[in-house]
Amino acid sequence: MAAGRVLHGISGSAPVWRAHICLREKNLPYEAKVLEMSKGDLRTPEYLALNPRGQVPVLQDGDTVISESLGILQYLETVYPQPPLLPEDKAGKGHVIQRCQETANLQSRMVDAVRMKFVWKGTPEEVKLFAERKEALKDELQRWEDYLASGKGPFICGSSFSLADVALAPFILAVQRFGASYAAFPNILKYADLMKPRPSVVETWPEHWKGTQNKDWLEGL
What we know:
Blueprint: E1 5-9, H1 14-25, E2 31-34, H2 45-50, E3 58-61, E4 64-67, H3 69-79, H4 90-117, H5 124-150, H6 163-177, H7 186-195, H8 199-202
Parallel strand pairs: 1-2
Antiparallel strand pairs: 1-3, 3-4
């Protein structure tokens, strides 16, 4: 496709949500193509031609095809620098880029814990492993709680919304969706409440989350 912009994703995927938010923050028009794993949409020859890993998201921007959510964020900021989601100064850029990359740790800890509940049988081994993974996620959340507590503004890198917030917010909100109250993480709770009404977040809120209750899988966090 020589023209047009299409974001391929699945509803409720935090990595996909990142890309949606970034496109909205950049005021870039695009088509959202919602795929369904249960129908094998990620394993079709057409989709595997876009991303041989069979993962989401994938962004088609004219003739450019890019996957990996953090890569998509970097691409959009580089190719469409206005409005900017990176500070002008070198130190500020470095800070935001580092925090963006660090969100991969939160993603990993969340996925490790949450994916167990999709195949849960309640064996003693599962119970033990799930407790360990929840603890690892708790430790990771504490790191972000400390970042927010020591920062100079309400956002993860200070007083301005940045690419780091695009990378982080979907996972903070997803962990909450899966049952975290953030009772022990007051700064994260405040951050989640700050992100929820942001237009780019509201407009791209996962469709199947609307009108449904949060899960209870991560209670106690």
